[in-house]
Amino acid sequence: MTAPRIDILTIFPGWFDGPLTTSLLGRANEDARLDLRVHDLRDYTTDRHRSVDDAPYGGGAGMVMRADVLTAAAEAVWNDLPPEATAGRTDPPAGARFVAGGERPRTILLTPRGRRFDQAMARELAAEDRLVLLCGRYEGIDERVHDLVATDEVSIGDYVLFGGEVAAAVIIEAVTRLRPGIVGNDASPADESFADGLLEYPQYTRPADLRGHGVPEVLSSGDHGAVARWRHDQALALTRSRRPDLLGEPDPPCADGGSG
Ligand code: 6GU
Fold first, then answer.
1. 150 Cα–ligand 1 center, Å
2. Which of 35, 40, 141, 214 is geometrically suited to a Cys-Cys bond with 5, CB 3.0 to 4.6 A?
3. Atom of ligand 1 at shortest distance to CA of 157?
4. pLDDT digit string (tens) for 69-78?
5. C-alpha closest to that of 64 among 134, 7, 145
6. SS3 content of the chain, % helix, strand, coil (to 5)
7. Contacts of 81 (CB under 8 A, 6+ apart)
8. For residue 7, is pLDDT > 90?
């Protein structure tokens, strides 16, 4: 099996140095079990200032990411061409298989207005052998990028970040750990929170006593059935109190009595 490939397009390529060289993700990347490539959007500009953004039509505060630069970057990366092949062009390169508005690999635009990322989406994306992640920045992105370049728009939650870099890292980590052969232990991801729609049960290891705090007796009983029942009951109770929405139940009222 060839390694799944993920291309990241960003104006902060250095931001990914840490995640891509550290931890399980970094090891998988170094061992060629994963093919992560980071591209600098500024390599697709042609002006002296290497501008990736411009003032909005219609006026107003803030800058807008340019559709021409993002389209050139995406078409080069999709087709494995060097930046010179597309930078500054307004038409797709001759003979290109993947073109904006046409056939293209799964290309995810990270934006707070996207569909909210969750474990089900992680599972869906883990089935793809190629993903392109486009990190949005600044106050906005030219709408034609949404229309012609992105195949999906994804947000990681209801809060606003400076840009899509953190969101891209979240998606890469959630998706790659579901790929067989990447975590090393293929049985473990399925065990965890959300795989069965419940939060994970409490876990303990030695010592048996920590400053007077012990370990539930059932876990040392040797009764595997009793342990399994205890864990399921705990997972259910934890889910009911913290995340009733996962059980299809309404959220409890806020502690402060507010309506939010
Ligand atoms: Cl994908 N981008 C930004 N800028 N903010 C976010 C986000 C993405 N997801 C949640 N907040």
1. 15
2. 35
3. 10
4. 999 999 999 9
5. 145
6. 35, 15, 50
7. 75, 93, 96
8. yes
Q: Is it the case that residue 191 has pLDDT exceeding 60?
A: no
Closest of 169, 146, 141, 134 to residue 40, by C-alpha: 134
Cα–ligand 1 centroid distance for 234 (angstroms): 33
Dihedral sign from CA coordinates of 234, 239, 244, 246: negative
Mean pLDDT across 217-232: 98
Q: How do the domains of the chain map onto residue ranges?
A: 5-176, 193-247
pLDDT single digits (tens) 33-57:
889 999 999 999 999 999 999 999 9
Asked if the bond preceding 244 is cis, omega within 30° of 0, the reply is no
Establish whether residue 112 lines the binding site of ligand 1, counting it when its CB lies within 6 angstroms of any ligand atom: yes
The CATH number that domain 193-247 falls under is 1.10.1270.20
Cα(214)–Cα(26) distance, integer angstroms = 37
CATH T-level fold of 5-176: Alpha/beta knot (3.40.1280)
Q: What is the pTM of this model?
A: 0.91
- 156 pLDDT above the threshold of 60: yes
Evaluate whether 5-176 and 193-247 have a shared fold.
no
Ligand 1 center–CA 134 separation, angstroms: 12
**d(C-alpha 25, C-alpha 31), whole Å:** 10
DSSP conformation class of 250: P
